């Protein structure tokens, strides 16, 4: 739906899940990390980096908020040895995306259109996104905080 067509109830649900849910998670995680430090990886989206032209304004706004909260928390807790980052995936081959393809008139064409949005000419696997999260959680990323890592096969570079 276009922005002006979204029911307030849908808008509120998107914000409650993606923004308030994140805030609640961090509010409860951070006190447990204050003594020994730690790493938090939030999930945003490419729609939170550049916006989206697929009629998802509330979703896009909520994912921008995820990035804002991530960056602010990273600054607030850096001296407490808590790193906070976000992953911004592009399209991922999940059951939900496959369902969208299958609900179209031409599933192969729908998949091809999404695939071509990524310069690498394919759709990410869930494992690729998980590996990025694992990297940000690991000691290999000990000097990384406050970033929104785009895991999108070059989609955001266009």
Overview of this protein structure:
Strands 1-2-3 form a three-stranded parallel beta sheet, with helices on both faces. The chain has a single domain, classed as Rossmann fold (3-Layer(aba) Sandwich). The chain has 158 residues and is mainly alpha-helical. The chain contains five helices and three strands. The model has no long low-confidence stretch (mean pLDDT 96). α1 runs parallel beside α2 (57-77) and α3 crosses α4 (107-117).
Strand runs, count: 3
CATH class value: Alpha Beta
Kindly state the percentage of residues in helix: 40-55%
How large a portion of the residues is in β-strands, by DSSP E?
5-15%
Q: Give the distance, in angstroms, between the N- and C-terminal Cα atoms.
A: 25 Å
SSE arrangement, N to C: HEHEHHHE
CATH architectural arrangement? 3-Layer(aba) Sandwich
Radius of gyration based on Cα positions: 17 Å
CATH topology-level name: Rossmann fold
Mean pLDDT: 96
Q: How many individual domains?
A: 1
Strand order of the largest sheet: 1-2-3
Class per helix and strand makeup: mainly alpha
Write the CATH homologous superfamily. Answer: NAD(P)-binding Rossmann-like Domain
Low-pLDDT segments: none
Q: What characterizes the major β-sheet?
A: 3 strands, parallel
Provide a count of the helices. 5
Global shape = globular
Topology:
Blueprint (H helix, E strand, L loop, with lengths): L7 H26 L4 E6 L13 H21 L4 E8 L5 H9 L3 H11 L8 H12 L10 E4 L7
Parallel strand pairs: 1-2, 2-3
């Amino acid at each position: 739906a276009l922005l002006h067509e979204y029911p307030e109830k849908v808008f509120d649900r998107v914000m409650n899940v993606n923004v308030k849910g994140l805030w609640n998670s961090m509010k409860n995680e951070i006190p447990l990390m204050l003594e020994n430090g730690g790493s938090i990886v939030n999930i945003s989206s490419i729609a939170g980096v550049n916006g989206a032209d697929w009629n998802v304004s509330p979703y896009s706004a909520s994912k921008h908020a995820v990035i804002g909260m991530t960056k602010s928390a990273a600054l607030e807790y850096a001296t407490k040895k808590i790193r906070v980052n976000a992953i911004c995936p592009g399209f991922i081959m999940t059951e939900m995306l496959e369902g969208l393809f299958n609900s179209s008139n031409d599933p192969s064409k729908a998949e091809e259109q999404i695939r071509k949005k990524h310069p690498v000419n394919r759709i990410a696997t869930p494992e690729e996104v998980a590996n990025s999260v694992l990297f940000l959680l690991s000691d290999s990323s000990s000097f990384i905080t406050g970033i929104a890592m785009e895991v999108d096969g070059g989609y955001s570079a266009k």
